[in-house]
Amino acid sequence: NNQTSETPTSRTRADPELTSKVPSADPVNLRDPFDFVITVTNNVGAGLAEADDVFVTDTLPAGMFLTGPPSVTSGAGFVTSTACTGVAGGTSFTCDLGTFDNGGVVEITVPVRVESISGTSITNTASITTSSFDPVPGNNDNSGSVTVNVSSLAGTVYRDFDDSATPTASG
Q1: Which end of the chain is more exposed for a tag (fewer CB within 10 A), N or C?
Q2: Mean pLDDT value of segment 31-45
Q3: For residue 84, which of 110, 49, 113 has the smallest C-alpha distance?
Q4: Is-cis flag, bond preceding 70, omega within 30?
Q5: What is the rounded average pLDDT for all residues in the chain?
Q6: Distance (Å, rounded) from C-alpha 48 to C-alpha 13?
Q7: Which one, of 126, 124, 138, 140, lies nearest residue 51 by Cα?
Q8: pLDDT at 1
Q9: Secondary structure percentages of the chain, helix, strand, coil, to 5
Q10: In percent, how much of the chain has pLDDT > 90?
């Protein structure tokens, strides 16, 4: 009874990075749809390989909503999945990229709109996770900001009391 067994496990070593998150337009008008484009890269380097079980997640800031599900476009390399959760009116999503090729680049297009805002700028942050060993976890989050045009009404109201096309101040 002096024996034991253990099933060895191994993980690949990979450096997936959320490279950028930029709006398709800046500034945008309140309630107008636009896209955030998230670029994800699996960096190349000594000892790095494909990243396994890769997920990109995002919880939108207050006042921002999805206008549809996000979509994944694979550039260099490949991913084994492009499935994204998230529906119109939702405030969060997750994209499952599966196994992400070493040196691969993926863009995730996130259709959104800002319904309400306090201030004139809104910042959104997304994150990437993997079951692989990630030696550089500090590059797994990235934020993008967008300026939102807000408007207000001010001035003097005129009424043409005598239909003369000459405005007179109401009061």
Answers
A1: N
A2: 96
A3: 110
A4: no
A5: 90
A6: 5
A7: 140
A8: 67
A9: 0, 50, 50
A10: 74
